[in-house]
Amino acid sequence: MSDEDRETAEHRAARARWSAEEQEAYERYERGTCARKKRYASERKARQAARHPLVQARLGRPARVYLCPWCLGYHLSSTPERSL
Ligand SMILES: [Zn+2]
Predict the structure, then answer these.
(1) Which of 27, 38, 60, 68 is the most exposed place for a label (fewest CB within 10 A)?
(2) What is the C-alpha to C-alpha distance for residues 50 and 28, in angstroms, rounded to an integer?
(3) At residue 77, what are phi and psi to the nearest 5 degrees?
């Protein structure tokens, strides 16, 4: 499966407007984030971790769970959902 298959049409449309340097920087950033984060094999496990008392105490709320387009695992994020 290529990375492109996992992107939405909006992703592609947005990235089509970027320069090659911007696209490269974006991919480096995203892959780096994936490599640094803990990976959960299922959304259920990620949500359990997101609701953990220690996580809530640190963030002041449950963490956000998202499906990673690079590893197809789930990660936790401390930033609230962005509306695109
Ligand atoms: Zn990942």
Answers:
(1) 60
(2) 26
(3) -125, 145
Q: Are 76 and 58 in contact (CB under 8 A)?
A: no
pTM of the model: 0.64
Ligand 1 centroid distance, CA of 80 (Å): 18
76 Cα: distance to centroid of ligand 1 (angstroms): 10
Q: What is the pLDDT of residues 6-40, one digit of tens each?
A: 677 887 888 788 898 988 888 888 888 899 999 99
Cα(42) to ligand 1 centroid in Å equals 12
Amino acid at 11: H
Q: Mapped to the 3 state alphabet, what secondary structure does the chain carry?
A: CCHHHHCCHHHHHHHHCCCHHHHHHHHHHHHHHHHHCCCECCHHHHHHHHCCHHHHHHHCCCCEEEECCCCCCEEEECCCCCCC
